[in-house]
Amino acid sequence: MSLGSISAEAHTTLAIAMNRIGARSNTGEGGERPERYLNKDLRSSIKQVASARFGVDSSYLAHADMLQIKMAQGAKPGEGGELPGYKVTQEIARTRYSVPGVGLISPPPHHDIYSIEDLSQLIYDLKSANPLALVSVKLVSEVGVGVVAAGVAKARAVHITISGHDGGTGASSWTGIKHAGLPWELGIAETHQILVNQGTRSRVLLQVDGQIRTGRDVLIAALLGADEFAMSTAPLIVLGCTMMRKCHLNTCPVGIATQDPVLRAKFAGSPEHVINYLFLLAEEVRVYMSKLGVRRLEDLIGRTEFLKPIEFHKSEKASRLDLSGLLYNTKPIKFHPNWTSVMLDDEEEHDPVDPDMTPVESLIQILPHSRQLDAQLLKLAKHLIETPESTPIDATQSVVTFTGEITNEDRAALSTLSYAISVQFADRGLPPDRQIKVHLTGSGGQSFCAFLVHGVSVRLEGDANDYVAKGLSGGEVTIVPPTSLLQQGFKSEANIIVGNVCLYGATSGRLFLRGQAAERFCVRNSGAVVVAEGVGDHGCEYMTGGRAVILGRTGRNFAAGMSGGIAFLYDTDGGLEGPFLRKCNRELVDLEMMTSDNPYAPWLLSILKEFTHETGSEVGQKILEDWDNALKRFILVMPRDYRRALKEMEEKHSENTVIQSEPSHHIVELKAKQTAVDIEDMAAGDQSDSEAPLDKLRGFVRYARTKVGYRSAEERTKDWDEVYAHAEVRKGLKRQAARCMDCGVPFCQSYVGCPLGNLIPNWNDLVFKGDWHAAHLALAQTNNFPELTGRVCPAPCEGACVLGINSDPVTIKHIECAVADKAWENGWFRPSKEFLRPPTGRRIVIVGSGPAGLACADQLNQAGHEVTVVERRNKLGGLLRYGITTMKLDRRVLDRRLDLMRANGVKFVVNTRVGTVGDESGRRDLNADCQDPAQPVQEWRAAQLLREYDAMVLCLGATWPRDLNIPGRNLEGIHFAMSFLERWQRSQQKKHQSNGGIDNFRMNRMDDNAVSAIAKDKRIVIIGGGDTGVDCMATALRQGAKSIVNLELLPPPPPSRDPSENPWPEWPRVWRVEYGHAEVAVRFGRDPRKFSVITKEFLDNGSGAVGGLRIANVEWTKDPSNGRWKMHEVPDSEQLIECDLVLLALGYVGPENKLIEELGLAVTGPESLIATRPNESFATMISCVYAAGGKLKNNHHCRRGQSLVVHAINEGRQVAREVDLHLMGSTLLPGRGGVVKPRPTAFKSRV
């Protein structure tokens, strides 16, 4: 992961963690600034050299423990990379020697590697640029990688990384991620086997990467032959990455894959997170090793006998996989390599280093014989290098001059000299008062003057091979033909004087060539100034900075991928109408003829004078003699993005700024313009919310979460209508939808978010675009009753929203409710029997009309079955009707849904009990008999239903309340909260029918308990929090309660998440003010809640009714041995609370047991939940009987007890799918998330 693809904070944190534990971090291909690599705590010990050579200069290479040549990336082999301009900030531009705001391109290949010999040369170059570093080569796991690795080992690399296809960032192209590369298991196994057979395995370290996350992954990699293990995705996840898959858009909300300063400030990772992860990873590896009876990891490398393939029985094709080649058992490795051994093996024999030697003397001592030219220069310049910069040197000794001969056997000449200077003076090169002048004659070998640093100037009379001035780092190089040839009339402008790929990755400095250069001249030049008398094909390819002056012919494809820098072409063949127009690749550049008014004309004149004086070029002399006319023959090649960037830079300076060369250290910050071609970039949104277009790409940064949710407390407490401010919410809904980030891994619809798997990002985006009908269809795909969940669901999806990590989450619940209401308003919900499957003839009875039963019925009806829902109460809806107040759910919303289901063919039977009532013992619904005696309840025997129907689904709910058995529990005036709410809901129904009010409640009563439960003019105490307690507060308040107090055993939740106790994406246990709390606070001037309180006794008022409570304070402490919280009563904290009515909102234990016993169903656990079959089944142990309203727990045999409405709907949908599958043999009903799962295969194992 390079700096640029991820933020400086994330990159530095990884480096710090690795340095602390003695491991190694990798810079990636983005380079590293001196302030990092000069600090032993912040540096990345592995410096990567990739195809773009970003940030690769002499100092960068000199301060590395390992230099890694990245041949390709496992996630996108054969593809280049691209860093969008809006991610190229000032910091990134300084590091990569480019211009802020201008996009950067990584070429697909290394342009100095087209054969194994070329790779060998680059390895030699890097060894010359840092004799003390190991050289690694990163290869991609693909067919034949083992043969390539064998060649790499023979090319003297001592470290090989095999990269699997699963690696890479979210910025990789989707096609590359999905279809390119192979698993690392194949690559590492092949490489290890071939190296062992060739006898080179002991001198090469093998590393593997590609989504290695667990100790099991590490162990398998070792058994297949890996010595080392690299990982990046897992550490980034540990640091907070949420797999947004938006890395290329610069909008990472956790500050990891972004350069936006606002988002980077949200980064919350620390080195300790990574260290702890790696420690636990190592512990897991130790567990596996102990099971295998092995003490050292080295003893496992290549031991494939510990592996065995998994037997595939899912399909015929999978069963034919032959993994014998992968698990081939090679000969044992005689000697396991490590860093020390490969370093010693890599060095040639030399005399032992004297500890009293100076650094330069020690360097000379270890140089091989092939580096004698550098050794001579190091001896001459020893005093210039070792004298501190602050110590002045005598003027007579400040300049060192060397004259000698060179042959083409002298490869990478002067690179080691540059290394010694960089070790001492970093990227500054020699101090200004010191200079090394080298005069050579002959033929320079490959990589002549590679990585030459500032303060060293070289003049060569002769010619040079490929890669001249590769990675030029401030030095000056002049190459001219021999004087003897020139005296014979040699025409330099007509002959090639240097080979291919000159100035590859040059960062600064100057190159003068009296003669032509071959192909790929100035490829990826990012800061050097060069003048040549002609170039071959692909000149200035991928150039990002610097300036090139070409005084002669050019080859084809000039300026391909050129995103920065400037080129001047002297063309006497017609200018813009001549052949150069065909040779130039104008995809990224503009062409224009030079004139005397052009601001670059003075600089061009000065550099030509310098070039002509230095080289004696006849071409340069002729141009200068007729400058006014010659200037008009120059063609200026200017990248468009570069021109834009320079214009913005100019706007930041005064009008008197003199245009000069743009070295990286003078680059100023530019406004990062977002030019990504992505659907989110194109989104303008509906402008009805505001005059300006809405910004979808950065909406989560620009727009705040709306605080409007409820009507004012003063207004809503005067009625029983819904508390929601629907009209106000809708006004800013598209702005709120713009806050949705369309996460690559949307946790909002995951198992910790929406149990239904609602396609939340999909319909958020559709609402933003104003396509309400499509949003309705997307919502209906997963949710049968969105108008209900949009009102009563506590929105676990918002708790899991990625934005909620460090900001307010998206208002998902408001958007869902608005989409559903809009669908009803526009008539999109209507009877649609024509869209149902043809009748199947199957009959199904569902017991219970709560949310689970209704969802099950709706799904099975869509599948074509005949569905009957049985409800023992006189009204349908269960919890939705009697357990939730009208302030949260208007009963008209529920009734219109029930009417639609009737119209679609669902049969409802009310006032009907399945099974017998039985005696008073055992669990039973305490509210089941509170209905009007005028509507008697009939009984259907369960056995009869099993005979008449093909399947029975039990959606009984958890109706047995949890009690508080303390002294005084038998007093009058103590009621379960649900009894209080249900009786009032029934009273409300009567009130609507008779236009009565609260004062004629007695006239509409159905039993005496309802009278004692009325809260008017009473002091109310509600024991227990949660939604039910809040509903009781709001109901009692509207009934006219005299006072309301809410007692809670637990301590008050914190204002924000406690990451150690309640990490994201769990449901946030934080301080909330629900609608009931706010209403009580407005009416009585205080929040009704009292926390950390235990109720010890109900007190008698003298007439057999409750008159108060005796309570005490408690405190909670965590047991350090097991991490569990313990409660302790605070001494002398008892107190009395006066009250007239107590409501117990303590939750529910489980379902009533009469019908369960009559059917003979198995139960489990203290809650007596219905036991179901294993493998996540909803089927009970009785054939054709299913249970819903819960999810599978530990041993896959328990159904959920009390839970949320959204869980119940999901249970109903999933049990319907299983029933349909059982009855029909296949099903088109969707699973979670609206996914229609394929029919199970009929293939059976032959074993």
UniProtKB/TrEMBL annotation:
Quote the EC number: 1.4.1.14
Q: Where is the FAD/NAD(P)-binding domain?
A: 843-1212
Residue ranges constituting the Dihydroprymidine dehydrogenase domain according to the UniProt record: 717-827
Q: Which GO terms describe its molecular function?
A: 3 iron, 4 sulfur cluster binding; glutamate synthase (NADH) activity; metal ion binding; oxidoreductase activity, acting on the CH-NH2 group of donors, NAD or NADP as acceptor
Record's protein name: glutamate synthase (NADH)
Q: Which InterPro entries match?
A: Aldolase_TIM, DPD_II, FAD/NAD-bd_sf, FAD/NAD-binding_dom, Glu_synth_asu_C, Glu_synth_asu_C_sf, Glu_synthdom, Glut_synth_ssu1
All copies of domain Glutamate synthase alpha subunit C-terminal, residue ranges: 405-597
Entry similarity comment: Belongs to the glutamate synthase family.
Do you know which SUPFAM superfamilies this protein is assigned to? Alpha subunit of glutamate synthase, C-terminal domain (SSF69336), alpha-helical ferredoxin (SSF46548), FMN-linked oxidoreductases (SSF51395), Nucleotide-binding domain (SSF51971)
From which organism does this entry originate? Opisthorchis viverrini
Q: Which cofactor does it need?
A: FAD; [3Fe-4S] cluster; FMN
So what does this thing catalyse?
A: 2 L-glutamate + NAD(+) = L-glutamine + 2-oxoglutarate + NADH + H(+)
